[in-house]
Amino acid sequence: MTTPLLSVENIGRSFGGFVALADISASFAPRQVTAIIGPNGAGKSTFFNVLSGVLPPSTGAIRFKGKDLTGLRQHKFVHLGIARSYQITNIFPELSVHENVRVAAQAFVARYDVFSNRTRYGALDEKANAALAAVGLHAKGHRTAKALAHGEQRALEIAIALVADPELLLLDEPTAGMGPEETKDMVALIERLAAERTILLVEHKMKMILGLSDRILVLHHGRLIADGTPQSIQTDKEVRRVYLGQNDGYA
Amino acid sequence: MPPSPASAAAPPLAAQTGVKATGFGAMLQRWRVPLSVLALCLLPWVLPSQALAVNVLVFGLFAVGYNLLFGYTGLLSFGHAAFFGGGAYLTGIAIAHFGLGWFPAMLVGVLGAGVLAAIMGALSIRTRGIYFSMVTLALSQLVYYVALQASAWTGGENGLRGFTVSTINLFGFTVDFLDPVKKYYVLMVFAALALWFVSRLLNSPFGAVIEAIRENETRARACGYDVERTKLIVFILSGLICGLAGALSALHLAIVPLDTLHYQTSGLVVMMTLLGGAGSFFGPFVGALVFLLIEDVASLWTSHWQLIVGLIFIAFVLFLPKGIWGTLISRRTQG
Amino acid sequence: MDLELILMQLFSGVALGAVLIMAALGLTIIFGMLGIVNFAHGALFMVGAYAGVWVAEQTGNFWWALLLAPLAVGAFGMLIERFLIRPLYKRSVDDPLLLTFGLGYVLVEAVRIVFGTDGVPFATPEALSGVVDLGIGYFPLYRLFVVGLVAVVLLALWVALEKTKFGLIVRAGAKDPLMMRVLGVDISALWLVVFGLGVALTALGGVLAAPMRNVTPEMGTLVLAEAFVVTVIGGMGSLLGAVIAGLVVGVAVSMTALFAPEMATIVMFALMALVLLFRPQGLFGQSVRA
């Protein structure tokens, strides 16, 4: 295995007395697609929140490119190269599609510039256009974000994450609420992105995960119960036991 | 990043920047500072009294500063009396107790309000959501009670007096500061500078950041912005402008009533901003103008004008939350 | 320094704490259950005091005032919820706050119109006037009565919220209104009742405070600030937090009054600033960022 891009060591997270995540260790090699699955309440969202700096872990450490990220605030994670999308579409609804991505790109150039004119940073427009083109939204830059179709909004959110040029992209249920057509587009998009980036995604759609991922982690009750290739996960005894009788994953 | 085959196919840049207003709206946007200044220049001649004009100037500027935080960043502070009153008191104290000239005294007032805002902002921005309003109110009451007790410096309950500025020296010219018209235009210059600064800030990259935070704080954070620090900066800038409004008020009235620091004064600016239209450039001045006109007219026939103002305010929250100006411009851009 | 004096002042602090708890209770309940900051809280406290004065004048009996004024003002609170606040639930959390601020403005002015701007006198009821010997000194009987009554009210609230089905539903409704709707609970009726209850408690605080504070149209402004301080120190909508915070603030103010009387009011707000510095979520607030 090559040097890992990201590694987590014994991380845990509890809320009051409730343990949402316990003792998880894993490393992630560059340019791999890893899916994180598990029944509802397994701790997937908490895991993502810890990985993206939304929540500090209660125990353990996160290392990214050899640097210890534990305890850093979320915006630092982004600047170091970890960007994410959310399970429930999370965009700037009243801004135009172009502005959505442009303001995300601006975070790396001008965060506290009070005196110059916005238009001075012309390069941002090109970056924004490039990110929109990458997700197929380049023709809709002038639209108000909330006027986009659901699938387009999900794509916009990925463009927002993408414009940060992250080495690690965390996608929280990128196809949530999508029909078969939109899902297919999204899978194609993720495959394209995977050529250049490391991707972690949380998903429920099993068929999609099996085709897309190089590796699967299975969480259950906040613990990592299986970690391996899609083939090995399919035959894993523990996973079968956890999922037995639960058909929401196999839809 | 993949190469961009789209740049040729994409619509021209101007169409992409999301400015929805066309024609008249766009013109208003571009000329907003000169237009505001022009309106302020005319104010003493179109309003029934000079006193009302100065009040609109001072409270309009107060509301402009407040709007930066409430309207543009989405933080509902109920403690801005501390900065308005703080600016007024410190200006007055600098003249009355330290014999400073009017201009250095103003600087003291404005910067003092900024320091106060930095402290109050640092404490209140740490709290979540709706807590913010309660905390800012309570902290500003702390300032109020300190001013009440430190009567040797502030005049306590009687307010601060004894710092009348009768003439000022402007670039070698002596201006009679007791002449209401001349005084108005001197004060107006400072208000105009502040307006220019706010307009500039809204056009700046930083303006784009605060817009993003108001729209969606979580997403802004996930884009790599330090939301707390950005809010604190806006809080301080807002405090500086409100401090300037307070300093102007002190120079104008030559007294600072203790109530200037009371949270009821914060309430006034909240009402004015909302009546005019929070988050719009002209809204705060429109709100201050309408509020003070209502007060002026209604108090002619009843001493209970606050009842009328309160009812109008309730009606606005229920039915016109965008305020007068905000509703006007949204009608235009939709139609 | 005289030990008895300090003990006495400590006891005064507890009594003041009881008043502060009563001043904050209605605000905390509405805040905790509905997530609304009621800026008309101070004004409703004042309205409660005036209602108490009026009932006591009409009936010549303080006990009727203590019973009827909170009921009447509570019913008025339900009207407020039904017609002014309910349309705002789907909007930003700032909107009910702004609306109730305007409402407070209107209420203060309305009371000025009806009762005049000067305020009205309200004597301590005869049965409760005089002082009691506590062994360490004499203490006004009325304040002792207030402490007792606040304790009873708190106990009743605790039982109602923790031990009854109504309480269970209210607490569940505060956590997950959508789920309650799915389960067929009429959430809007629930919120109507909770808001009315909060306002009734606020009015009760006003009646109790009437003999101790000047009854004026402006008496609510300080109450609002006090209630905020207690709520912020105690923590987000926590009943226990409000009780502890009320007592802590009461004792702190009372002790400061002994050594540096001019600092007494300031210390309350300074205490809040201190808590914010070290525990921004309040003493009993949850620190989790969801």
Describe this structure in words.
The complex is a heterotrimer of chains A (251), B (335) and C (290). By secondary structure, chain A is of the alpha/beta class. Chain A folds into two domains: 1-81 and 168-178 and 198-251, Rossmann fold (3-Layer(aba) Sandwich), CATH 3.40.50; 87-165, no CATH class. Chain A has helices spanning 44-51, 74-80, 97-106, 122-134, 150-162, 180-194, 206-212, 230-234, 237-243, and strands spanning 6-15, 18-28, 33-37, 59-64, 67-68, 82-85, 168-172, 198-202, 215-220, 223-228. In chain A, the strands form two sheets. A six-stranded mixed sheet of chain A has the order 6-7-8-3-9-10, with helices on both faces. In chain A, helix 3 crosses helix 4 and helix 4 crosses helix 5 (150-162). The longest helix of chain A has 15 residues, at 180-194. The model of chain A is unreliable at 247-251 (pLDDT under 50). Chain B is mainly α and 335 residues long. Chain B has helices at residues 6-9, 13-16, 24-30, 32-46, 50-70, 81-96, 102-124, 131-149, 151-154, 180-203, 205-215, 217-222, 227-253, 263-276, 283-301, 305-319, 323-334, and strands spanning 167-170, 173-176. In chain B, strands 1-2 form a two-stranded antiparallel sheet. Chain B starts with 5 loop residues before the first helix and ends with a helix. Chain C has a single domain (3-123, 132-278), classed as ABC transporter involved in vitamin B12 uptake, BtuC. Chain C is built from eleven helices and two strands, in the order ααααββααααααα. The longest helix of chain C has 32 residues, at 3-34. Chains in contact: A-B, A-C, B-C.
Q: What is the CATH class of chain C?
A: Mainly Alpha
The portion of residues forming beta strands of chain C comes to under 5%
In what order do the strands lie side by side in the largest sheet of chain B?
Answer: 1-2
The tally of domains of chain C stands at 1
Structural class, from helix and strand content of chain C? mainly alpha
Principal-axis shape of chain C: globular
Number of beta strands of chain B: 2
